[in-house]
Design a protein that fits this description.
This protein has 14 helices and no strands. It has 306 residues and is mainly alpha-helical. It has a single domain, classed as Tetracycline Repressor, domain 2, CATH 1.10.357. The relative contact order is 0.10.
Length: 306
């Protein structure tokens, strides 16, 4: 049976729990990724009147959370894991060509270059730092350096890739894939991201202020990664929330605004006179609440918890 036909029948009828089986999927063991259009159909069906034994309605179990059935839980977990895996895949596909044919060695050396170059680039800025300065900071000769990069633009591009790898790892380490409640997943994702950006403020400030020096091709790659990975992650999180799916331009505006607000501490923190971790924590909670109010979402009793 065509999957779209099956989805329409399931969404309009009472047998939608049989949909994964009819599509050759199992959401109980080893769930496969469901395409976004199918997830939206399932969540639209979820928001209608369903038997009480299949879902705990929001607020009934306390804390104002939006509890869902175990089959949808599997879908939430799998789709987010798929999203994170795709993010890393896109970063990997954006690897630079190098003289070395050993990809593993090249990746290792390019990480060393990023780490070494960061210290001198943060101090002197992109425009005033020479390739010789970078080679010296990396403990390499000029010849060795050019074996793995071809220009300073390559290094700035690699720093963009490195920042996305760090962010992706912070999301995975914090267990965002395991969160099944879509509202809690959004809140947790925002908190992880803001704290990660704040902890790596110097890196992100450098990236955003110095990317103007990139040539057109490197800039195109960077902007594409940002749209598909960073903004794309927020598109994904927002699309999971039942009854709050935005469409078209509103969806794009919401995802881009959320992405921008997450950078507030990095780009405007200098004007907030933050004196320590507690100030950062309270600012993060304010920003999460600001986003939730803008989206018309209820945080319940989760505010301020990790």
């Amino acid at each position: 049976m065509d999957c779209r036909v099956a989805a329409r029948q399931a969404v309009s009828g009472e047998d939608w729990y049989a949909l994964p089986v009819r599509l050759g999927m199992s959401l109980d063991t080893g769930p496969e990724y469901l395409p976004e259009w199918l997830e939206r159909a399932l969540y639209r069906r979820r928001s209608s009147a369903l038997p009480a034994d299949r879902f705990i309605r929001p607020g009934e179990a306390g804390r104002g959370q939006h509890y869902i059935g175990r089959k949808e839980c599997a879908t939430f977990m799998t789709s987010t894991k798929h999203q994170l895996d795709e993010m890393l895949q896109r970063v990997a596909e954006g690897s630079l060509q190098a003289a070395s044919t050993d990809r593993e060695l090249t990746e290792m050396k390019q990480r060393i270059i990023v780490e070494g170059a960061s210290s001198v680039l943060f101090e002197k800025g992109f425009g005033k730092t020479s390739i010789r300065d970078i080679a010296s900071a990396c403990g390499m000769s000029m010849g060795q350096l050019y074996h793995y990069i071809s220009s300073k633009d390559d290094i700035l591009y690699l720093m963009h890739r490195h920042s996305q790898e760090l962010w992706n790892q912070s999301l995975v380490d914090a267990g965002i894939e395991e969160i099944t409640d879509p509202v809690a997943k959004l809140e947790h994702g925002l908190r992880i991201t803001m704290k990660h950006l704040s902890a790596n403020r110097q890196l992100y400030q450098f990236i955003f202020t110095e990317s103007k020096y990139l040539d057109k091709e490197h800039l195109r790659k960077v902007l594409e990664l940002d749209d598909r990975n960073v903004v794309g992650f927020y598109r994904h999180l927002l699309s999971l929330i039942p009854g709050h799916q935005l469409r078209g331009r509103e969806s794009e505006l919401a995802a881009n605004l959320v992405s921008y607000v997450c950078l507030f501490l990095v780009l405007r923190g200098w004007n907030l006179k933050l004196s320590g971790p507690e100030d950062v924590e309270s600012t993060v909670e304010f920003l999460i609440g600001f986003i939730f109010r803008g989206l018309g979402l209820d945080r319940g009793d989760n505010s301020g918890e990790d």
